[in-house]
Each structure stands twice: as C-alpha cells, then as structure tokens.
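Issue: ligand-bound run for 2-acetamido-2-deoxy-beta-D-glucopyranose - logging full I/O for the record.

Environment: standard queue, default settings, no custom constraints.

Inputs:
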Amino acid sequence: MRTSVFCFVVAFALQYVLAAKRGIVTLYGSLDSLRIDSGPCPEYENVFEGYQDAIHNFTIEVYKHVAPLGTYQFVVSSHSMWMTLAAIAEGADHETQQQLFKTLLLPDNPCIRQSYYQLAASRFSLTPDVSVVSTRALVIDEGVTPNPLWHSFVTKNSLLDVITAPIKFNPPVAANVIRQVVYANFPRLNLRGNSVLLDTMDYNGLWNTAFADAVVKRAPFHNIAGQRIGSVDMMTVKRRAKVGYVPKLQSKMLELPIGTNNQYSIIIALVVGNNDLRPIIREMKSSIIKEVLGTLQESRVPIDVTLPQFTINSELDARTILEDFGIKNLWTDPEATRYISTPPALPSSYVQRSTLTLNKDGVNLPAVVELRSFGPPSSPEDQFLSEFIADRPFMFGLFDTETYSCLMATMYTQPTYPN
Ligand SMILES: *[C@@H]1O[C@H](CO)[C@@H](O)[C@H](O)[C@H]1NC(C)=O
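Outputs:
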C-alpha cells in the first residue's frame, strides 16, 4: 500500500517535471479531492441516506427534464450519469466542481464522497438471473495524457474508464471506437473537442415470479384520454404483490421483485382516470420516491397484473441536459478540465444510451391462486387495488432493494404495434 502510494507520488512528480520542461503549466494534485487517503469519515454522517438522497434528487431532476423532450417514451439511467459526472467533478476546476457537486448533491468532504462512490459502484449485477451492466468512459484524443492522480482515483472508485481514440487525426475511426464502446448510433456526435463522454446501462432480468406462461396476447393500448392508439403484447399474472396509491402522482403503484433473492425490483406508477401526465411530472419532487416506498404494502388479495412486454432503448444528448442545469464551462473552457489531462480533456459531447427489456420470464413459476381462500376483495380500496392493468401510459423505475436508489427511470407511452 505504502509502496504504491510512493510510486504514485514519484510518477506524479515525474509527470509534473516533464510537463514543466515542455513548458506546460499544470498544477496537478492541487485539489483536495484527489488526495488518495482522505482519512476517516466523520462519524455523525449518515452516508447511506446522503447517497440515497443524492441519487433520488438527480434521478427526478433528470427525469423531469427528459420526459417533455419527445413522446414521453424513454429510459434514462440517471445512476450511470451520476457516476460519470462524479468522475469529472473529481478532476474539474473549482467552479465547475462546485456546480457538479451541487447537481449531484455531493458533499465537500472527500471521504463521504468516496463512501457514496462505493455504494454507487456496487449496485450492478452480472449473474444468470439479473444483468444490470453499465459502461462509463471518457474517450480522449491520442496525445492527451490523463493526470495520473485523477486517473487512478476514478479507476479505483470504479467511476469511469479512460480510452484513447484518434479524435483529431481520424474522426471516422474514433467514431467507430466510440460506437463499439457503447453500441449506439449517435446521429449527432460532435468530435470538435479533445474528448467525448459516454455512458450506458443495460437491464435484462428474471422476475422473482414469472408471468403466467400461456397468456401473452396482443391487446389494445391507450393514451391518457383513454383512446386506443395501438396494441402491445400483454403478459398477465394473478399474484400478491406490494401495492398502493399515491395522490401526488394520481397513480396506483405496484412493486414486482426481480431475481432469486429479490435483489432488484421494478416499481410502476399507473396514472388512473384521465389525468394528464405532464403537470404530474412538472410537480415531482425528489421526496416522491420515499413517499412511494412508504405507501407500498403487501396486498391482502391477489392482484390481476397485466403489463406489456417490450424493449425500450434511448440515446440521450446528456451535454444538452447538463447545459440546461447550468453546467456550461465544462464543454467550452479548457480550464474546467485541466486537472483531468494535459492538454485539458475538453469534452465536446456526452451521450448516454440505456436499454431495458421486460418479458414474462421469472425464477419461480407463479403459484396457483386459490381464490376461495381469499374471497372477493372486501373493501372498496382492496377492490380498487386488486387490478393493475398497464394498458395506458405508465412510469417505472428499476431499484436495487438494498439502497432503494433508482438505477433506471422509464416512461412507457408508445405501443409496439400501430393498430
Ligand atoms: C434537489 O435538491 C435541491 C437542493 O437541495 C433542491 O433545491 C431541489 O428542489 C431538489 N430537486 C427535486 C426534484 O426535488
């Protein structure tokens, strides 16, 4: 440990001397945030809750921003974006760093930040039952040298990878490298800077309890006004689950566990009546996630659950989103990224791709429901919550059930088939 820190310091000093010789004035390591050993965290800090609040806040901010951009059909991995931007924040100049800390709700204490990063980096999974995989990369031009201190920090904390491509010398080759990293098309990839930021998240998992096998069938899908706008392949199951009603969202809620040990879950909000989604989204605060979690309760009766099967894929221009949040220097002022590399990384684009698939497969078969043992739903509330039929626009989030921080946030409004 001591030796590696020592090597590090030597490497850093060498780099600095070489840079100085070339006449490049960079002050690597002047940032407290890059100290390798940040000491013990203050004991009073509730890291878990701070991390949760940070992710919830960023998720809702991004969600509210992305939703009105298109057809209200999208998936966004705010979690992966949060990690990517945290890596950039750790090497940004003071002004940009403070802007990013504010946007990501990152505290000034570097030890607490590192604790957040540990929580964030341990949310992924690549097991036979659940795959939640994220790639986060800074692709830099050949000839751009990452600051070894920063590079080691972001690698150690699993925040970001640094990849080299001939951005200036051969843009088509660079564009290919980038497409291969993220399996995306990027119609408008701007390669005018020294680097490009990329991040992706892919979800594919088995429900803890499968949907009933034989009953996937084509069924109508409606808009908010209740008019049929196409159709989807519906999967159905009758089972007990956590349900609730959240007045602020005008929505019925349902939680369906994922994986052998319920490691993840999807929480769905289905707007009832003819309520317009737009004002509901505009009014969302990050506290809504905790309200939802507080409302969900195991149903007393089995619920008729009907959900479309689909794959949803979104590519987002994250640079524009961040510019709207007031983060502008990062893309235009080389000073902002001068602690990240020499010459400064100066990213010109930031693209995120997220892909999520829902199908009927599960770890366990659904239990045969003995209707008689439950009887008919007794109260009007039970009656209301005994059906969850997602044949109209709905929102949902993918959560890990240890921290209940949101990994992907989604809205589904566009049926698979036009009629
Ligand atoms: C996120 O946190 C900031 C700072 O606490 C707050 O002003 C903002 O309203 C929060 N955003 C949401 C969507 O709740």
